[in-house]
Amino acid sequence: MANARITVHTAAAIDRIAPEVHGHFSEHLGRCIYEGIWTSDSADEGGFREDVVSLLSDLEIPVLRWPGGCFADDYHWEDGVGPREERPRRRNLFWAQGPEELPEESNAFGTDEFLQLCERIGTEPYLAANVGSGDPQEAADWVEYCNYDGDTELADRRRENGHEEPYGVKYWGLGNENWGCGGRMSPEQYAREYRRFATYVGTMDNLMLDHELELIACGFENHEWNRRFMEEVRDNKWGVEFPLDHLTLHHYYGRTMTVSEADEEQYDEFLAEALEMEYHIERIAAAIDAVATTRDIGVIIDEWGAWHYEANADNGLEQPGTVLDALSAAAVLDIFNDHSDVLTMTNIAQTVNVLQCLVETDENDAWARPTYRVFDLYAPHKGNEAVQTSIETPTRGLDGEDEEDLPFVQASASTRDGAVYVTLTNLDCREAHSVDISVEGLVPDAANVEGSVLFADHEPDAEVNADNADEFGARPLDVDVDGTLSVDLEPATVAAITIEE
Ligand code: AHR
């Protein structure tokens, strides 16, 4: 008999899952951009690594955030455009640029390189403008350089630099972590800065042909900060509206832990910390809702993922790609589906080599990490209608007085054209669980049911490398169909089931 049960409420729609929820983040940090995405040795005309471009293209990334991170509020975009040999070398205040490097920035990879990368891999760019040490003029000029189609010096400069047509960059972040590395501002102070920047950047929208800039403000994991920001930023006593389309926060987890040295209790604690994502989404949505409706202002989690202790050992923030981390990503993606009514985008940190990247490289190869496999498995949800699920699951108590139990079986579901997509995860790293799944309004026929499973042959601490990467791919999952669906989920596995009409 099954010890977990999932009911998919096909008639209880939540909202469309914004494809941008599967977005990514790349910063001038360690080997993410230099060596990871771009290298002066590349045979590719644009300097990109063909192997990385190919892996990222296959994943159909909907949106990519750049250039930071903390780097964004120390970055002056004009340093990174024009002839490469004339671009200034600057210190990188926060991060080294490779294992042996000083924290310096060559500016070899700048706006045009990033936007060409986005064109190559078919992704929407999201640029983060410098609020901490920049000014509104610089930010508005960046919009003009990228998007303006008229007869100005900046539009001409873009044309001279090889891009005749405007790039049409839609997403503009105003600052990054402005409560921290982006200027250590109080919520009121950042709200005033945000209004000032949004006035100039937002008004640029009137000069664009398609009028579609979306402006993004930085929030915090401290929800009192978010509430105070929202109150101040929306203080509309002068009756002047200005654009604010999304509010963000960052959620990293696992900072005190090294996966290879951890035990199963620490795995549980790590996974429970990942599940706190739900609390943060609900709290930031409530902070928005108190002042506006959540439909007016979307929630973005524009940095998230596992950040382990060993990543702090050098400024490159590298850590192994493990099954455990991938497991946490699956559970978080399920939470994202369940909150599709408020979430407009998320960006896992950071695309290549850094933190919970999806792609890892060495000099010769690039390969998919287990987290890449999870994104691939969950890809069919993108753009679907999320529907509610009820889950009965075994749990295990965590040590520590204030901590809750870890619920082992996580799941989410979506529908499209009569088909139902269910993803589920067994967060129990010790025991298998059998799961019954009933789909309301549907008596499934075995011929129309397909299942896949990840990591059934691997331990949670299994690490990917160039030689074993192919072994982490999806395998067929046995689904027993008898009115309901039944599956056995091995410890630390992720599965997907599709039921066609
Ligand atoms: O992703 C690494 C860093 O984490 C980013 O630069 C910063 O925004 C966050 O604190």
Automatic annotation (TrEMBL):
GO terms for molecular function: alpha-L-arabinofuranosidase activity. InterPro entries: Alpha-L-AF_C, ASD1_cat, GH, Glyco_hydro_b. The keyword Transport does not apply. Residues 302-493 form the Alpha-L-arabinofuranosidase C-terminal domain. Its EC number is 3.2.1.55. Keywords: Carbohydrate metabolism, Glycosidase, Hydrolase. It comes from the Archaea. It is an enzyme of class 3 (hydrolase). The keyword Hydrolase applies. It catalyses: Hydrolysis of terminal non-reducing alpha-L-arabinofuranoside residues in alpha-L-arabinosides. Pfam families: Alpha-L-AF_C, ASD1_dom. Gene3D superfamilies: Glycosidases, Golgi alpha-mannosidase II. Belongs to the glycosyl hydrolase 51 family. This is non-reducing end alpha-L-arabinofuranosidase. It comes from Halopelagius fulvigenes.
